[in-house]
Amino acid sequence: MDKNKDSDLTLIEKAFDKLEPYKEIWLEHELYYRSRHSTKQLKKLEKRGRSKLFISTTRNTVNIVRSIFSNSFFSQGCPIEIININNKGGERERNITKIIKYYYEKKKPRKELNKAFLSALLYNMGIVITYWDDIKKRVATFHVPITDIAFDADARNIDDVEYVAYRFNESMSQIKSKIKSNIYDKATAKELFSEEQLNGSSLRRYEVKEIYKRSGNRWVYKTFCNGKLIRKSKVKKIPFNYGIALESIASIDDAERAEQILVYGESLVNQIKHLNDEINQKRNQKNDIQEEMINPSVMVGDKSQVNPNDLKKGAGKRIRVKGSLSEIKFVPTPNDYPINSDLAFLDKDLGEASGVNSIQNGNTSSSDRRSGEALAIVNSNSTTRIADMIDLINETLFEHWAKDFVRLVMANADDRVIDKITGEVNYFGAKGRRDEFEFELKINFGMTLDKEKRISDLINILLPITQNQNINPKIAERVLKEALSIRFGDAEFLDDMANTNSEEVPPLDENEKRVAKELNMLGSQKV
Question: What gap in Å lies between CA 296 and CA 294, rounded to an integer?
């Protein structure tokens, strides 16, 4: 060990060394998402002359979950809203919300946040870096590849991280510019690079490494280039936000536990890839059997006068055999078998493992004999499971990202913009002198999922109501009004209908009281 080497640089290298076992797993998950065989597996199949389709089950399942997330998070425009603190005031929070929406529209981070969620489904974690761009005067959010960041390997969970290591590439021109601007305040170009490097292309990139270490309520961070410390400072908040969509658990096997990094979550791909393997096998076996039936293999004896190359049509493989065979002989073809029943079982297993059912896949057909009530329950349960994934990444990643977005905007927003939005001069104080303030966030996140689940619940209540001819009409009215208000946010015309029908309504029986109680429970939930 080099005694002159900075201990934090050594810590960075150890943190990234710990990632190496994960890379192989992540590469495998990437192949499943891209619907590709590994090179080794592909050569093996080609050598044996087997069908080599890779069915895009994993990719389709992951993309459905991601589409539900995207529709849920971004369907309401800006997902960030400041709410009243302790129910006091309100004007101040409304003005902050307007400012946030203005800057959100300047640079919508939808694409980058979608990448982070996809990364959490594929690999184990989604990561973004968020900072204020002084040149473009807005908040910048970018997805960070999972291999560019290494976390505290000894952390007990995602909230127990004591340090974060980061590596990226910068061009020679960028490094020189930062040295000139004193951003890299402990460096000169001649100390970092050789004459050959300095005189080379200014576009050539060099690896830069950083580490952020927790120190009380702050973070100490260091930047290294070519093994030399070029910056050391303190910050209140690291620029990264990271989160998981599925939780992992520590192994009770000591050897396996020693290799785990518990900051990471579980991958959705890991839960369904074995089913994708089985689907691939069944589909390819079917193709191989059909190919053998259409083009059966033929054996040609050594003493035969038939040239195998003359068998251009009708025969698949031509096999030379030794012995007394003096003519050609077709190899018996295998029997075809019904694959649909096997695939139906696999589809059911896939739905249970991933939370994506046949309804969301668009595969429900006339052969699906389930009742409307059963379909509603299946869809509601699946939606709940996907909502759990989204709720977890909301808690671990997007709520923290939203708070950073608000903090960066309020600290750096242009005075003229704030004055125009609020209608007052220096409503929150001038830039650079704005006091930090406490705020609570409401994120319009998961609203679509929540609405769909509640509507499914209402359908389950409505079905037995419609089967009872003597049901109190007030109950049916309440169900319809609740469902319509969830879907459209307004059921005023139902109020008008209720006012025009002022006939006396009979009292509720016991069953109707139960339904009414369930409706009251639904009505008390937050949309």
Answer: 6
What sections of 150-243 are H helices per DSSP? 172-180, 189-192, 195-198
- Residue 377 confidence (pLDDT) above 60: no
| Residues 169/206, Cβ–Cβ less than 8 Å | yes
Higher pLDDT, 301 or 205: 205
The SS3 assignment for 468 reads coil
Whole-Å CA distances, 338 to 181, 285, 333, 405:
71, 11, 16, 55
For residues 390 and 379, what is the distance between their CA atoms, to the nearest angstrom? 16
Q: How far apart are CA 323 and CA 307, in angstroms?
A: 16
- Kindly state the tokens that stand for 404: 């950073």
Write down the H helix ranges in 241-339: 254-259, 268-294
How far apart are alpha carbons 104 and 318 in whole angstroms? 66
- Cite the beta strand spans of 71-204 per DSSP E: 80-83, 126-133, 138-143, 149-151, 163-171
301 Cβ contact partners less than 8 Å away, ≥ 6 residues apart = 320, 321, 322, 323, 324, 325, 326, 327, 328
CA distance 225 to 170: 10
As a whole number of Å, the CA-based R_g of the chain is: 31
Question: Global pTM?
Answer: 0.75
CA distance 32 to 274: 10
**What are the tens digits of pLDDT across the range 304-335?**
656 655 555 555 555 555 556 556 666 666 66
Per the DSSP assignment, residues forming a β-bridge with 104 are: none
Tokens found for residue 115: 């990448």
Instruction: For residues 58 and 373, give the distance between their C-alpha atoms in angstroms, rounded to a whole number.
Output: 28
